[in-house]
Predict the 3D structure of the following.
Amino acid sequence: MDVIGIFGNYCLDKKPAAVNWIEGRGKSVVCEAIIKEVVQVLKTNVSALVELNMLKNLVGSTIAGALGGFNAHASNIVFAIFIATGQDPAQNFESSHCITMMEAINDGRDLHILVTMPSIELRLLATIVVGSVLAGELSLMSAITAG
């Protein structure tokens, strides 16, 4: 028998794949926040953010056949952090798998935002990446809804 390779490419390293979305790869991290005073701080309202997230990030991504890309621009943030910290930028494919969820709470006054990233190819930087993605998602979505 000749060994021609150690890996059978099932891990799909550096390639977007359903297996990495479902089973995770590297670190699986969740970040969430409750944003109060949305109108004052973000210059938009909770219901507009929740509606945009549903239509753009969830429905739009589903119709497009997205593979773990149910977010506004997680890959931009992940890529920037990878470049800035000397990580392998090709790991951006699986590391950018992300779903952004938003819901109105406290009778619609406050926003609960949650970002789940199941396959970040980092160890110590994983929590920084997901926190940065949450902030970026909130910023972009607020800018879109504020006009």
